[in-house]
Specification:
By secondary structure, the chain is an alpha/beta fold. Helices cover 29% and strands 27% of the residues. Strands 1, 2, 8, 9, 10, 11, 17 and 18 form an eight-stranded mixed beta sheet that branches. An eight-stranded mixed beta sheet has the order 5-6-4-13-14-15-12-16. The chain is globular and about 65 Å long.
């Protein structure tokens, strides 16, 4: 059996569902295929942060727009995004980190992030009591940054896309990309073939695998990350900021009546499997105790593993691959916060030929062109 659509989107995470909504709203017929379930891949395991505190102009602009979109999510999409502007607090240890973030703050303010500020270590402690601050060189804080619900946002886009006629099919892994007259003309699953004018790879950590079906080598590699949630914990309130110790990447934020925390782990091998490794907790606790001793009083309730989709410069691949094939992947931990905006802007690019903000720094061929502009504020 062969069906037809204007666009086939491969991947039903937040990026794929956002793109499907904006394309369908623009009048395109859209089919989304996912090897698993809606939002249950990388999106389900993310920490839910949304910020404009980046080091590159394009990411700052995306962060600003993402906050606007999530604050108005119910009006545009039809349900709450559970967006809470609790703020983002970056803790800095070295003089180099302080200078790098100070330069970024100047750029952020020049672009319109009016509420971002530099703080002294003492001012940071006033926001998060119990912080060890004697070794800090400084901090930055943006109160309009915050948290949103990964499930709420992804399912909101999926439901809205369906209302506009999009089809989202779960348990439907793509097994091949078909060609006609040298152009990518459709996809194949184990059950059917679907012809399409355009195909977009939004497959997160599995992007390189899907790209190989078209004979492409896409520089996206998966790495495993872990997050943990505590029992109800009085040392943090629901209005406490997302707090990040940039030097170690230890972070924590309120989650319900408890706390969600995690940290990057250099000992984790490159892996496309989100298998839980509880030994990670043993490596996080000493670093966490050095920065925020109250965490030692908390009881861990649950934990999970998820996957980052990394590129060499920590910037996504967004744009045409040629022959009717597009990509929006490789967000290096920023897919949830960027997904609402990238879905909208990429849909405009595909339907109108241009984006509101220049995305050339995301072009998939930038590495071969020597045009990479890395993002430095990566956790």
């Amino acid at each position: 059996m062969t069906r037809r659509a204007d666009v086939v989107v491969i991947g039903a995470g937040v990026v794929g569902c956002s793109l499907a909504f904006y394309l369908a709203r623009a009048g395109r017929s859209v089919i989304v295929l996912d090897r698993g379930s809606i939002g249950q891949g990388t999106t389900a395991a993310c920490a839910g942060g949304v910020r404009a505190q980046f080091s590159t102009e394009v990411n700052i602009r995306i962060g600003m727009e993402a906050k606007r979109k999530l604050a108005a999510f119910n009006r545009e999409v039809g349900r709450s995004a559970d967006f809470r502007a609790v703020g983002y607090l970056f803790l800095l240890t070295t003089a180099e980190e302080r200078d790098q973030f100070a330069e970024a703050v100047r750029l952020q303010r020049r672009l319109g992030v009016d509420d971002v500020v530099e703080l002294s270590p003492g001012q940071a402690v006033a926001l998060v009591p119990g912080l060890r601050w004697d070794d800090l060189s400084g901090a930055t804080y943006c109160p309009s940054d915050g948290l949103a619900g990964p499930n709420e946002v992804t399912m909101g886009y999926a439901e809205a896309a369906r209302r506009h006629g999009a089809l989202i099919e779960e348990g439907a892994p793509v097994t091949a990309l078909s060609r006609r007259a040298g152009l990518v003309s459709g996809v194949e699953t184990s059950n059917e073939s679907i012809d399409a004018e355009q195909i977009v790879i939004c497959a997160g950590p599995w992007t390189a695998e899907v790209g190989s079906l078209a004979g492409l080598t896409l520089p996206v590699s998966p790495s495993r990350r872990h997050a943990f949630v505590t029992q109800p914990f009085s040392a943090v309130s629901r209005r406490s900021p997302m707090t990040i110790d940039f030097h170690t990447s230890f972070y924590f934020h309120p989650e319900g009546d408890g706390l969600l925390f995690g940290m990057g782990d250099a000992e984790q091998p490159e892996s496309g499997e989100a298998v839980m490794d509880w030994s990670v907790l043993e490596r996080i606790i000493p670093r966490a105790a050095e920065r925020w001793p109250p965490l030692l009083e908390a009881q861990v309730k649950s934990g999970w593993a998820g996957l980052y989709e990394n590129t060499p410069d920590s910037q996504p691949l967004v744009g045409p691959l040629g022959d009717g094939l597009w990509v929006a992947a490789g967000f290096s931990g920023h897919g949830f916060m960027m997904g609402p905006v990238i879905g909208d802007w990429l849909a405009q690019w595909m339907t109108e030929g241009a984006t509101p903000v220049d995305l050339r720094s995301f072009r998939p061929d930038r590495f071969s062109r020597g045009q990479s502009v890395p993002e430095h504020h990566v956790v």
